[in-house]
Write a structure and sequence with these properties.
With 427 residues, this protein is α/β, with parallel strands linked by helices. It has 13 helices and 18 strands. A hairpin with a 2-residue loop joins β8 and β9. α1 runs parallel beside α13. Bound molecules: flavin-adenine dinucleotide (FAD).
């Protein structure tokens, strides 16, 4: 009953104005649809505000690599390691965690990495296409992307990841000793090996990027609403509208024939209303922004041991990364910030800055590390675009384009099976 074959413009409500939601809204308008973009806090309120800004096409290997079972408990007990847990959350986390870790085998990792390569392998092009003709265009910056290691032995210890990337067609230079440090004058002696990948990119202000794309939606005749979506209304299994609660607490119904759920880590509640089984958790991440740094990096780098990126941004240098389990309700913890600062001093020992600002946000991570992209199994007219884990900025532009094509009944040039929203349903 999805009208796959009709190209009739629709009224599409997009729920969530993060990168996935705004990219979907922009592409839907380009296909001629009327769009209402809804966010309870306004555009760029979630993970899309504070991420690392890297268009990380090569970040296709999931967290759940073989052997993680053995390493994770030790990492959790060591505050110098970039993995944290709010222990009180463990009972709620456990069922998801077991499903997540059940994918930590070679066959699943290769399947996930191959699927993600299809979605994010051309990220720079996808963002250039998304931002073209909008005020956000100047924030898309082509660049290299380098992974930094203490020495060759540390790189070799990661050989499993690199071998998968090579098999998927990624290529790079390896730089050792002084050559590695010459990548950037800001790097200290702790860096003894680097892997430099061409053909990547960065967004020089992720929050402003999403805001400008949302402003473009308005400029093109769309509506951007600040309201919380509470439920769907339907007749005979077909969507008829959304129930909203405004900032003043006023309840309202928005009529629409199509909706896209793109509410990031908060999507679970609405997915449940659709009868969609959504095993998803937040991998909480942290950033510190160093304003007016004494040196600016030439290009983004990933400090492999600390699992954080350092990325040049407008007026600041951003360090972003770390994984903490603790759900979407609890506020930020102190230990991840302390770790970022310690790693900052080790990696960039001479760097100075005027002021530091801190942020924590929620990466939406499904039990198989793949997003859900496609029609909701439980209600005609509803589509899902969520669960983009650590690569949602990278994959957001393509996801929006793909959803707009699907909703418009067009052929999509991407195998969609791995993203099928029904894959977690009980048979
Ligand atoms: C520290 C950190 C660093 C990262 N670095 C990178 C990186 O370098 N590169 C990369 O590709 N990815 C990175 N990511 C991941 C990336 O940020 C996310 O995958 C991506 O932003 C998810 O986008 P989204 O649109 O799905 O969700 P979000 O950006 O979280 O947006 C969801 C929106 O939905 C709204 N919402 C929720 N519920 C409702 C409701 N009921 N009604 C209305 N609105 C609602 C929220 O207010 C929010 O604005 C990083 C993440 C973190 C935390």
């Amino acid at each position: 009953m999805h009208d796959h074959n009709t190209h009739m413009p629709r009224h599409v409500a997009v729920i969530g104005a993060g990168i996935v939601g705004v990219a979907t809204a922009v592409w839907l308008q380009r296909h001629g649809h009327r769009v209402t973009l809804i966010d309870r806090e306004g555009p760029a309120a979630g993970a899309s505000f504070g991420n690392g800004g890297v268009l990380a096409s090569s970040a296709v290997v999931p967290v759940t690599v073989p052997g993680i079972w053995a390493r994770a408990p030790r990492m959790l007990l060591d505050p110098r390691q970039p993995l944290f847990l709010r222990w009180g959350y463990l009972p709620r986390l456990a069922p998801w965690l077991l499903r997540y870790l059940s994918r930590a085998n070679d066959a699943d990792v290769r399947r996930i990495a191959a699927a993600l390569t299809g979605l994010i392998g051309t990220s720079l092009d996808d963002h250039q296409a998304l931002a073209q003709g909008t005020e956000a265009e100047s924030l898309v910056v082509p660049s290299e992307y380098s992974y930094l290691y203490r020495d060759r032995a540390a790189y070799d210890a990661d050989s499993y990841l690199w071998q998968i990337r090579r098999a998927l067609g990624f290529h790079w230079d390896e730089l050792e000793g002084t050559a590695a440090r010459e990548l950037d004058p800001a790097l200290g002696p702790d860096v003894g090996f680097a892997v430099r990948l061409p053909g990547h990119g960065r967004i020089s202000d992720p929050g402003a990027y999403v805001e400008r794309l949302a402003a473009h939606v308005t400029a093109q005749g769309g509506q951007v609403l600040r309201a919380e979506v509470r439920d769907f209304t339907h007749e005979e299994g077909r969507l008829t509208g959304l129930r909203l609660r405004g900032r003043d607490g006023r309840r309202d119904t928005l009529s629409c024939d199509t909706a896209v759920l793109a509410a990031g880590a908060w999507s679970g509640h609405l997915a449940a209303k659709l009868g969609v089984s959504l095993p998803m958790e937040s991998e909480r991440g942290y950033h510190i922004d160093l304003w007016e740094p004494s040196q600016q990096l030439r290009a983004p780098v990933m400090v492999a041991a600390g699992k954080f990126v350092a990325v040049p941004m407008e007026g600041r240098l951003r360090l972003a990364g770390v994984v903490e389990y603790g759900g979407v309700q609890a506020g930020a913890s102190r230990a991840p910030f302390a770790l970022l600062r310690r790693n900052l001093a080790r990696t960039f020992p001479d760097l100075r800055w005027r002021e530091v600002t801190e942020w924590m946000g929620h990466r939406p991570v499904t039990a198989d590390s793949l997003p859900l992209i496609g029609p909701a199994p439980g209600m005609h007219g509803v589509w899902l675009g969520l669960g983009h884990q650590h690569i949602g900025l990278t994959g957001g532009a393509r996801t929006g384009q793909v959803l707009a094509q699907m909703i418009s009944g067009q052929q999509v040039n991407l195998p969609l099976e791995p993203y099928a929203p029904h894959r977690f349903q009980r048979r």
